């Protein structure tokens, strides 16, 4: 699995583009979306920074390698979505749900979280560097090798989470529940 991840990064470095490719029809559907039912779209590798994803239900969607950096997301649902290698760097997330999402190597560095649900999510090797995370839940989340270095954690619930080899260096922690 690690060799596939390394190959993805090598291809991006050599050719300057993601190995993921969004379905153009699905991008058009996203642009005309009105909140009703989950959109199980293939948005892999898409640059979604120009889309308004507030209150959009992307449960089950493929967003691997998608660029959502710097976005403001309110009440967006990514439950059961594939988000491996997605970029959320510098994003603002308010009442967003990632329940049971697959999120290997996701970059949430320098992001702000308020009331975000990561329950049962798989976040191996995810990055939350220098992020502000408030009133967020990671119940039963898989956080193996996840890096929270420099993060400000306030009222966080990590109950029954697996944080094997996770990094919490230089974090500010207030009212953290880590009971298993």
Task: Present the secondary structure layout.
Layout: H1 2-15, H2 24-31, E1 72-74, E2 92-94, E3 112-114, E4 132-137, E5 152-157, E6 172-177
Would you mind describing this structure in some detail?
- By secondary structure, the chain is an alpha/beta fold.
- The protein has one domain: Pectate Lyase C-like (3 Solenoid).
- The chain is built from two helices and six strands; from the N terminus they run H-H-E-E-E-E-E-E.
- It has a six-stranded parallel beta sheet with strand order 1-2-3-4-5-6, with no helix packed on it.
- The model is unreliable at 1-7 and 9-17 (pLDDT under 50).
Distance between the termini: 29 Å
Q: Could you say which overall geometry the principal axes of the C-alpha atoms support?
A: globular
Biggest sheet architecture:
6 strands, parallel
Measured by DSSP, the beta-strand proportion falls in 15-25%
Q: What's the architecture, going by CATH?
A: 3 Solenoid
What is the count of helical runs? 2
* CATH-assigned fold name: Pectate Lyase C-like
Query: What is the share of helical residues?
Result: 10-25%
Order of H and E elements: HHEEEEEE
Uncertain residue ranges: 1-7, 9-17
Our count of domains comes out at 1
The SS-based structural class is alpha/beta
Q: Radius of gyration, rounded?
A: 16 Å
Cross-sheet strand order for the largest sheet: 1-2-3-4-5-6
Mean pLDDT: 86
Q: Tell me the total number of β-strands.
A: 6
What is the level 1 CATH name? Mainly Beta
Short summary:
With 180 residues, the chain is α/β, with parallel strands linked by helices.
Keywords, separated by commas or semicolons:
Pectate Lyase C-like; single chain; 180 residues; alpha/beta; 6 strands; globular; 6-stranded parallel sheet; 2 helices
């Amino acid at each position: 699995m690690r060799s596939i991840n390394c190959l993805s990064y090598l291809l991006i470095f050599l050719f300057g583009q993601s190995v993921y490719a969004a379905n153009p029809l699905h991008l058009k559907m996203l642009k005309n979306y009105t909140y009703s039912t989950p959109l199980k779209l293939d948005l892999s590798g898409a640059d979604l920074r120009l889309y308004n994803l507030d209150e959009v239900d992307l449960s089950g969607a493929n967003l691997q390698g998608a660029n959502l950096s710097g976005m403001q997301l309110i009440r967006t649902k990514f439950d059961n979505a594939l988000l491996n290698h997605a970029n959320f760097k510098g994003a603002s997330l308010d009442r967003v749900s990632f329940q049971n999402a697959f999120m290997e190597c996701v970059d949430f560095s320098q992001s702000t979280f308020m009331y975000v649900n990561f329950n049962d999510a798989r976040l191996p090797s995810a990055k939350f560097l220098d992020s502000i995370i408030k009133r967020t839940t990671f119940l039963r989340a898989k956080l193996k090798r996840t890096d929270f270095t420099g993060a400000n954690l306030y009222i966080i619930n990590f109950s029954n989470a697996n944080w094997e080899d996770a990094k919490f260096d230089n974090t500010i922690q207030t009212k953290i529940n880590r009971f298993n």
